[in-house]
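Continuing the batch. This is chain 6 of the set; chains 1 through 5 are on the previous pages. Same settings as before, nothing changed between runs. Recording input and output for traceability.
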Amino acid sequence: MSIATEELSLAMDSARDIDGVARLRYFVRAYVRFCARHPEVNRLMIQEGMRDESRLAWLTQKHVTPWYQSVGRIFHEAHALGVAPVMAPINFYYILTGAATLIFSNALEAKQLTGTDTQSEKQVTRHADALANLLFPEMKP
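Output for chain 6:
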């Protein structure tokens, strides 16, 4: 099991008693926090994804496919709740992955561009909230 699948499965298990939309938002936030702690994962996949070699095939089979399936379950849960963004699961996967990871993978660029430390707790929380709001807006009573 990959570190992402393992860590995020634990996060989702801890959120098992939270209602549907709040649980989805919790998942997005947990994933962003994971990406902030492990920017090397996305950097590695970007690098390896540029070459159609056996190493990419192994990484995809061993680590990416189980994670893709986990994200797919989240997407289908959102669809069942009527809150899934209008898109196919593959688009949801890559939009979530790209949006969650890029700010941390390019942390030095962000620092030079804006003077912002994207690894600070404040910025990680801000980014997690922004993505959760984008994908699963809070419903006003």
